[in-house]
Amino acid sequence: MSEKINALKAEISAATAKTQEELEGYRLKFISRKSVLGELFADMKNVAPEDRKAYGQAVNEVKQQAEEKFKELIAGLESSDAGSKSSAPIDLTLPPNVNLGTVHPLTYIHNRIVEIFQKIGFNVADGPEIEDDFHNFTALNFPENHPAREMQDTFFIESNPDIALRTHTSSVQIRVMENQKPPFRTLAPGRVFRNEAISARAHCFFHQVEGFFVDKNVGLVDLKQTLYYFAKELFGQDTKVRFRPSYFPFTEPSAEMDISCNICKGKGCNICKYSGWVEILGSGMIDPNVLENCGIDSEEYTGFAFGMGIERIAMLKFQVNDLRLYSENDVRFLNQFKHLS
Ligand code: PHE
């Protein structure tokens, strides 16, 4: 028996580990539960009772020796690793090789719009992207089976026609009006979804910022002044603005707002289709039915609302001619917006 132990001691003291694999080999052989030492301990029961004490001490000594050696081998490996690393030359004159991300143009425009409206007291609200029919349509005065629902091609959930991906963030306005008391000055930015064929000019998802203002005595003049202010802040003080009558079920009267083409300054170019004007948003006085649907007295309160697509505004601002670029994550495109960061 003592021969076996002496042989083991010799083997342990001669062990080396130049690689992680060799170290692991050592660990398996001498340290792990299934190691030779484990076997020696298991043999204890075959030793005559009067010899057991001496046997136990001898095996424990080997165990200690094995563990100390293991620590030595680990330390040896670590220092040789560190040695090889520190011997690699470091050129301190090289510029740092970090490729930082940039602000996405849509994030930039979103932040700008929010900032401009926050200056005049608007706050920001959030709502779910998966909506029910009531918040996306019915409360917004879209009559059931009315063709106005077709204005926005909708993704419905097959098993439940009451649930859809929101087609606009007007749904958030309903949620805010339902749950809080007027007055309101609120923006609702977010992602919206429409079942459209993907092309340079349309996508099945895009981003909107909608906003609404409800208080006593709010009139069309407030709507116009607010949106004038916004257009000039975003596109420059020399921007001209015009309103064209339009139709939305939830506003009456409704208007679309154009700005003088910021690219050709109104002279005519292919962005504005040589008209000198580009449309940037829809707006109108909130239909009294919508206020009543949210439990707000439409005799006491009036309001206006507006909504715009962030992609479209960013297209005009940065002259992007294909909507798909925004969501393809091509760094050649994204790197062009480095100056915004
Ligand atoms: N919700 C409309 C849309 O998505 C935009 C809009 C909002 C128009 C508010 C008028 C008033 O097209």
TrEMBL record:
<comment type="subunit">
    <text>Tetramer of two alpha and two beta subunits.</text>
</comment>
<keyword id="KW-0460">Magnesium</keyword>
<dbReference type="InterPro" id="IPR045864">
    <property type="entry name" value="aa-tRNA-synth_II/BPL/LPL"/>
</dbReference>
<protein>
    <recommendedName>
        <fullName>Phenylalanine--tRNA ligase alpha subunit</fullName>
        <ecNumber>6.1.1.20</ecNumber>
    </recommendedName>
</protein>
<keyword id="KW-0479">Metal-binding</keyword>
<dbReference type="InterPro" id="IPR004529">
    <property type="entry name" value="Phe-tRNA-synth_IIc_asu"/>
</dbReference>
<feature type="domain" description="Aminoacyl-transfer RNA synthetases class-II family profile">
    <location>
        <begin position="109"/>
        <end position="316"/>
    </location>
</feature>
<keyword id="KW-0547">Nucleotide-binding</keyword>
<keyword id="KW-0963">Cytoplasm</keyword>
<dbReference type="GO" id="GO:0005524">
    <property type="term" value="F:ATP binding"/>
</dbReference>
<keyword id="KW-0648">Protein biosynthesis</keyword>
<dbReference type="InterPro" id="IPR004188">
    <property type="entry name" value="Phe-tRNA_ligase_II_N"/>
</dbReference>
<dbReference type="GO" id="GO:0005737">
    <property type="term" value="C:cytoplasm"/>
</dbReference>
<keyword id="KW-0067">ATP-binding</keyword>
<dbReference type="GO" id="GO:0000287">
    <property type="term" value="F:magnesium ion binding"/>
</dbReference>
<dbReference type="Pfam" id="PF02912">
    <property type="entry name" value="Phe_tRNA-synt_N"/>
</dbReference>
<dbReference type="Pfam" id="PF01409">
    <property type="entry name" value="tRNA-synt_2d"/>
</dbReference>
<comment type="similarity">
    <text>Belongs to the class-II aminoacyl-tRNA synthetase family. Phe-tRNA synthetase alpha subunit type 1 subfamily.</text>
</comment>
<dbReference type="InterPro" id="IPR022911">
    <property type="entry name" value="Phe_tRNA_ligase_alpha1_bac"/>
</dbReference>
<feature type="binding site">
    <location>
        <position position="252"/>
    </location>
    <ligand>
        <name>Mg(2+)</name>
    </ligand>
</feature>
<dbReference type="InterPro" id="IPR006195">
    <property type="entry name" value="aa-tRNA-synth_II"/>
</dbReference>
<keyword id="KW-0436">Ligase</keyword>
<dbReference type="GO" id="GO:0006432">
    <property type="term" value="P:phenylalanyl-tRNA aminoacylation"/>
</dbReference>
<dbReference type="GO" id="GO:0000049">
    <property type="term" value="F:tRNA binding"/>
</dbReference>
<dbReference type="InterPro" id="IPR010978">
    <property type="entry name" value="tRNA-bd_arm"/>
</dbReference>
<dbReference type="GO" id="GO:0004826">
    <property type="term" value="F:phenylalanine-tRNA ligase activity"/>
</dbReference>
<dbReference type="InterPro" id="IPR002319">
    <property type="entry name" value="Phenylalanyl-tRNA_Synthase"/>
</dbReference>
<keyword id="KW-0030">Aminoacyl-tRNA synthetase</keyword>
